[in-house]
Amino acid sequence: MPGVDFNLLRREITMEQVLDQLGFQPVGRTDQQLYGPCPIHGSSPARSRPFSVNLAKERYCCHKCHSYGNQIELWAAVKDLPLYDAAVDLCHALGRKVPWLHRW
After folding, report:
1. Domain of residue 21, CATH code
2. pTM of the predicted model, to two decimals?
3. What is the pLDDT of residues 42-57, one digit of tens each?
4. How far apart are CA 47 and CA 50, in angstroms?
5. Domain count along the chain
6. 92: which residues sit within 8 A by CB, 6+ positions away?
């Protein structure tokens, strides 16, 4: 099974694209920081703000379920998939080709 070029994937797919695919609706924003309900653990009520995303750094953090990471790790956490499978699934969800690594 070929590998996935995760570095290329992180450069080409933005956190905003992942958030759009997940239907994330922020309830607050300050410059490059978004706040809202966590798409991983499904926080409620809808005005909840434990989930924070830094768009400039392409990183997220939930202060309630303690999940954090980049856009691919967010997709993996929400979809409950291993990172490799999440990368392939995310590419398919966005209609993109998977950046395969063929080294041999």
Report:
1. 3.90.580.10
2. 0.92
3. 876 666 789 999 999 9
4. 10
5. 1
6. 98
